[in-house]
Design brief:
Blueprint lengths: L4 H10 L9 H11 L6 H7 L27 H22 E3 L5 E4 L2 H15 L4 H11 L6 E3 L4
Antiparallel strand pairs: 1-2, 2-3
Helix pairs in contact: 4-5, 5-6
Length: about 150
Amino acid sequence: MEVAEPLFRQIREVGPDQVATDCPLAALQFAQGTGLEPRHPIQVLAAAGFRSTEPVTRDREVSVEKIRLGDVKNLSEYEKVRDAVRRAVIASQGRRRVPVGEHLSFVFENRGTVLLQIQEMIRAERIVAEGRCRTRSTSTTPSSPTLASSRPR
């Protein structure tokens, strides 16, 4: 909660009508930190009257390689490559960001963005115990591509 306090303060200052996230854990933190009840981005679109005119079809199977504990760098290793990794992931997000109106955009996560989130959580929380790393990586790894709300920069 302490790490996210600057974001919560910014949200409280802006006073939005609503906040959105697809992450249940982030939703709990948003509610505690801002007093606002977050909605899932798809709920926001539905409430705005957005409806797809195209039938949903899947012409190919989509597979995302799971993140394993061995993929996660320890704190010391991560610090050495952090700037380069963050630059690469942030650059890739530009192609994965879809604006929806004036104040909302969706970011389509991939393995690289999720691995970055895991590494940053480990860094912020100074996690060094393997068991805690394993819990974080399995709870955050997507089994398929996910839709996420954007975060203010």
